[in-house]
Design goal:
heterodimer; A: about 120 residues; seven-stranded mixed β-sheet; 1 helix; B: mainly beta; globular
């Protein structure tokens, strides 16, 4: 099946620094990738949608200058949290839309294992 | 704007019991409805995906149904086990994937 990986799985950084999270589709080409954020005891909230080679589309209330998304290839998207603050501490999950065969047309999304970010 | 609601928010049952988790959505124009499982501190595990043209999907002890006209989906878990304890999320796929708040399931041995 389609596999999505994230790196790192967890990261601790100091307030004011930047951190980059990678999301890779391992065995398929993903033209669209999604970034979600999940706070404790809450559901996933979509932050942005990125299409390969295009600028990401951010959801309302998400600061595009703070959460930089780059989708440079069909298998890699990165999320950079700039000038991180403790309130940015969260669980970040990426997702990729399925392969161009059957799954593409069912709009199934495959999810990565998540990255736990703690800002001290 | 799609809204997805899951009932109950939490459920505790004894091992071996059959149970039903409910999911409702406000916009019936969906491509599919997915059920996920999430263990504490972990990512999502896809359980079942029901395409908009389908009525149900089955995998092992899990059965999910979809009624687009009424905006409802149910996840049926047969003969529950302690290992089934997790949070179950449903998500409706339209222009974007919209998640419910989840049902936290505890199966007691």
């Amino acid at each position: 099946g389609a596999v999505v990986s994230q790196h790192p799985s967890w990261v601790i950084c100091k307030s004011g620094t930047s951190v980059k999270i990678e999301c890779r589709s391992l065995d398929f080409q993903a033209t669209t990738m999604f970034w979600y954020r999940q706070f404790p005891k809450q559901s996933l909230m979509l932050m942005a949608t990125s299409n390969e080679g295009s600028k990401a589309t951010y959801e309302q209330g998400v600061e595009k200058d703070k959460f930089l998304i780059n989708h440079a290839s069909l298998t890699l998207s990165t999320l950079t949290v700039t000038s991180a603050h403790p309130e940015d501490s969260s669980f970040y999950i990426c997702s990729a839309r399925g392969p161009r065969d059957y799954s593409f047309w069912t709009y199934e999304q495959y999810f990565g294992p998540g990255t736990r970010l703690t800002v001290t | 704007k799609q809204e997805v609601t899951q009932i109950p928010a939490a459920l505790s049952v004894p091992e071996g019991e059959n149970l039903v988790l409910n999911c409702s959505f406000t916009d019936s124009a969906i491509y599919n409805l997915q059920w996920f499982r999430q263990d504490p501190g972990k990512g999502l595990t896809s359980l079942l995906l029901i395409q908009s043209s389908q009525r149900e999907q089955t995998s092992g002890r899990l059965n999910a149904s979809l009624d687009k006209s009424s905006g409802r989906s149910t996840l049926y878990i047969a003969a529950s086990q302690p290992g089934d304890s997790a949070t179950y999320l449903c998500a409706a796929s339209g222009s974007r994937l919209t998640f419910g708040e989840g049902t936290q399931l505890t199966v007691n041995p």
